[in-house]
Amino acid sequence: MALTKQERRYRIKKRIRKIVSGTAERPRLNVFRSNKQIYAQLVNDLEGKTLLAVSSLDKEISAAEGNKTEKAGLVGKALAQKALAAGIANVVFDRNGYLYHGRVKQLADAAREGGLKF
Questions:
Q1: Predicted model pTM
Q2: Tens-place pLDDT, residues 7-29
Q3: Quick one: which of 90, 112, 75, 111 has its CA closest to 23?
């Protein structure tokens, strides 16, 4: 029997998380993508704490015009600005089982342009 999309993504996610882990010096940039919104957060896995988070529901991003992919780019830029202000320049990217394509790729590229290194 074939896997559902959710089961397939969960298997990929487990495979990625065996390798990728965030620390205080180099947190994990976690991406969650729903049908309408996109969320990104920096996580310190050693302490189990979220250091900062940005989503497409934030006022300045949701007020902007554009499609979901363009808003994902705005989320990436906003995350990079907040991270640099908090003194975080290096991160580990966690695509959370999603394909590195479309909104996830746009967010990652925008975060790199904003100054994050991964």
A1: 0.92
A2: 999 999 999 999 999 999 999 99
A3: 90
